[in-house]
Input
Amino acid sequence: MITFRPRYGLLAIVFFVIEVLIAIYVHDSFVRPFVGDYLVVFLVYCFVFTFWNAHFLKAALAVLLFCYLIETLQYFHFVHYMGWEKYRVLAIALGNSFAWYDILAYTLGFLTILLVEQIPQEPMKRG
Output
């Protein structure tokens, strides 16, 4: 079912900006490869949950499986196989090298989402 949750849409934009800043300015061996993959789970989850009216567990699991699929495609060099290397943004988004640390980062992102989404929300105070 389709819905619109502006709070998650705003979070998706924030995570997207963070990811772009990491991609442009961070060139290390921890933040860019690991934290970037950890945060991309939040980005995709917030984007999906902005429009998809489903239980958070279903949405989070769908995002995790999607991330695993992308990583599996990297293992098989899908971008190269399809001849998409010349499309820089697409090649960067899909990636080109499989890493078990990426699987770990996606899994930790998924577990963090489950933890955060189960924290009871305070009702808005009326004043």
About this structure: Residues 31-51 form the longest helix (21 residues). The CA atoms of residues 67 and 106 lie 7 Å apart. Residues 6-117 form one domain.
